[in-house]
Design goal:
This protein is of the alpha/beta class and 251 residues long. It is built from eight helices and 17 strands. The chain is elongated and about 60 Å long. The two termini are 31 Å apart.
Length: 251
């Protein structure tokens, strides 16, 4: 099987490649932008299956189809439910919501194999897609968070937040002046709100700011311990299954 990944976030592309490798599927090529993909498709034989991120750094991946007639089957990957659920009438096999789950990936691959996809070209109604996407080009992340302090609302820039963490069913942010504040959200909701270049979820309880890291220490069972400049109320441990991705994120 000839497989291609198109994903603008290189750590996410590498992670997906490793997950496919665990399913005995070798990824032949990884591309990271609309322009790079158009050039590649122009000069190479098209693959059997494409894992395609909907929103790339230089535009929507659908723009590739404006220039190139692609006959491959596609599994879309996206962090945005509305893109996947509102549908684009394509011959796509499936879609996967980020962060991609091992079982869902395996189910999508199995579905692809069982369907014996035809070689008919994709038919895309781009006008309908454009109507669905009001502001499609730029992925916008939150720059500020608020917390209620008594009768007041306090505003925090993400630059002043060392980490977010969960405790006793609440979600807190910890600031660079060494204070904790309860906020009205969940760690799961932060997935789409935080810039992944600046914040990383090291385990089920913590998102950390890369600029707040003071030290990284080897820990038991091939894990890592993170020391932040100010937060020291709990140990921050990078889960073993996240260590490789975490190291790639640091780069």
């Amino acid at each position: 099987m000839n497989v291609l990944i198109i994903e603008d976030e290189k750590p996410a592309a590498r992670r997906l490649s490793r997950m496919l490798d665990d399913l005995d599927i070798k990824v032949n090529t990884m591309l990271h932008s609309v322009s790079e993909s158009i050039e590649w498709f122009t000069n190479n034989e098209h693959p059997d299956l494409i894992f395609l991120d909907i929103q790339l750094s230089d535009g929507l991946s659908f723009e590739i189809f404006d220039t190139i007639t692609i006959k491959s089957s596609i599994i879309f990957t996206t962090a945005y439910d509305e893109y996947a659920l509102k549908a684009f009438k394509l011959n796509s096999i499936d879609y996967l919501l980020k962060p991609i789950d091992d079982e869902e990936l395996e189910a999508a691959v199995t579905k692809y194999k069982n369907q014996l996809p035809s070689t008919q070209s994709l038919k895309v109604d781009f006008e309908d897609i454009k109507k669905l996407l009001i502001n499609p080009m730029d992925r916008v992340y939150k720059k500020r968070f608020t917390a209620r302090v008594g009768q007041h609302l306090k505003i925090f820039s993400v630059e002043d937040i060392e980490c977010f963490y969960s405790e006793n069913k609440g979600t807190y942010l910890h600031t660079t002046d060494n204070r904790n504040y309860l906020i009205d959200t969940t760690l799961e909701s932060l997935e789409d709100e935080l810039n992944p270049q600046q914040f990383y979820r090291v385990n089920r309880k913590f998102y950390i700011n890369i600029n707040a890291i003071k030290d990284i220490i080897s820990y038991t069972n091939s894990r890592l311990q993170i020391k932040l400049h100010h937060f020291n109320e709990q140990e921050i441990i990078v889960a073993r299954e996240r260590v490789k991705d975490f190291k790639e994120w640091l780069e």
